[in-house]
Specification:
CATH topology of the largest domain: Rossmann fold
Strand content: 5-15%
Number of domains: 2
Number of helices: 14
Structural class: alpha/beta
Number of strands: 7
Distance between the termini: 48 Å
Bound molecules: S-adenosylmethionine
Largest sheet: 7 strands, mixed
Helix content: 40-55%
CATH superfamily of the largest domain: Vaccinia Virus protein VP39
CATH architecture of the largest domain: 3-Layer(aba) Sandwich
Radius of gyration: 21 Å
Oligomer: single chain
């Protein structure tokens, strides 16, 4: 197993957001290298329990080492879109006092060239968080048609020159299929116009490919949908996102979950009725404002720059 480190972001803010009770049950849906998990365990008493998931076998191996050290902790190799099923089989459905989702990739995934996430370290064009899953990035780059590549670069990468990038890929792969991150990054840097200070021009297309390979946005939507069923009344949900596409999903989900069911406009009903319906159907309410990294954290962890934490509370079931 590789020994790359990961510095947890917004650590104190997450611990505060989870409002940890020493005998509570918590779920870390994105174990990574366990920075947040270890800090949660430090605050739990002997009755407290922490369960964790990760889709990356290397993260799970790191979690198994922690499992051997601490009987209050258990990890499973699973995608967080399976949150409900996993919690059901662990017997913690509706009983979980806090869920953490620190989504995206970990530093070990980015820093290990052989995982193929990075345009900075040349490696196989892979990008799978779970190397046992399909497809990898090379399959997408070498087989998807121009239209489909343009769509993901535009939608998931918000790349202005999506069509240009996709056309260049389709043209070049005829000569030689793409095998490495370096090959793809070099092409993107050649064909995407302009110069961007401090930003590699391949950044947005790499983000798009990673999202497509791992189905990241659908994973997030599914996990958020399941969270209200998993949480106990008053339980806390903490979601850390790293770019606007993810944050928009988290923001809209919490907004809709706190609005509950809506009656069609124009019905002759009183405010009391609509409020009753809201209380009966709303599942979550936001706690505080969005949280960003402090100047202190930014000074020591550049990765925290793009992190946004949203916290919500499970409303009492009626
Ligand atoms: C930002 S890291 C988490 C870091 C962790 N909080 C720590 O302190 O070490 C994100 C982790 O979530 C995992 N992950 C991302 N999407 C996932 C999904 N859909 N299901 C399960 N794990 C996922 C990744 O494999 C990665 O290990």
């Amino acid at each position: 197993m590789t020994e790359y480190a990961h510095v947890p972001v917004l650590l104190n803010e997450v611990l505060e957001g989870l409002e940890i009770k020493p005998a509570g049950i918590y779920l870390d849906a994105t174990f990574g290298r366990g920075g947040h998990s270890r800090a949660i365990l430090e605050r739990l008493g002997p009755q407290g329990r922490l369960y964790a998931l990760d889709r990356d076998p290397e993260a799970v191996a790191a979690g198994q080492a922690l499992e051997a050290e601490d009987p209050r902790f258990k990890i499973r190799h699973a995608r967080f879109s399976q949150l409900k099923q996993e919690c059901e089989s662990l017997g913690i459905l509706g009983k979980t006092d806090g869920i953490l989702m620190d989504i995206g990739v970990s530093s070990p995934q980015l820093d290990d060239a052989s995982r193929g996430f990075s345009f900075e370290h040349d490696g196989p064009l892979d990008m799978r968080m779970d190397p046992g899953a399909a497809p990898d990035a090379a399959t997408i780059v070498n087989t998807w048609d121009r239209k489909a590549l343009t769509a993901i670069f535009r939608e998931y990468g918000e790349e202005r020159f999506a069509a240009k990038a996709a056309a260049a890929i389709v043209r070049d792969r005829e000569r030689e299929p793409f095998k490495t991150t370096g090959q793809l990054a070099a092409l993107l840097n050649r064909v995407i116009p302009g110069h961007e200070a401090h930003k590699n021009k391949a950044t947005r297309c790499f983000q798009a490919l990673r999202i497509a390979v791992n189905g990241e946005l659908d994973e997030l939507r599914a996990a958020l949908e399941a969270s209200a069923e998993v949480l106990s009344d008053g339980g806390r949900l903490c979601v850390i996102t790293f770019h606007s596409l993810e944050d928009r999903i988290a923001k809209n989900f919490i907004k809709e979950a706190s609005a509950g069911a809506q009656l069609p406009k124009g019905l002759p009903v009183t405010c009391e009725v609509t409020e009753k319906l809201r209380l009966a159907t709303a599942t979550l309410e936001p706690v505080g404002r969005i949280v960003k990294a402090s100047a202190q954290e930014l000074a020591v962890n550049a990765r925290s720059r793009s992190a946004t934490l949203r916290v919500a509370r499970r409303l009492k079931r009626q």
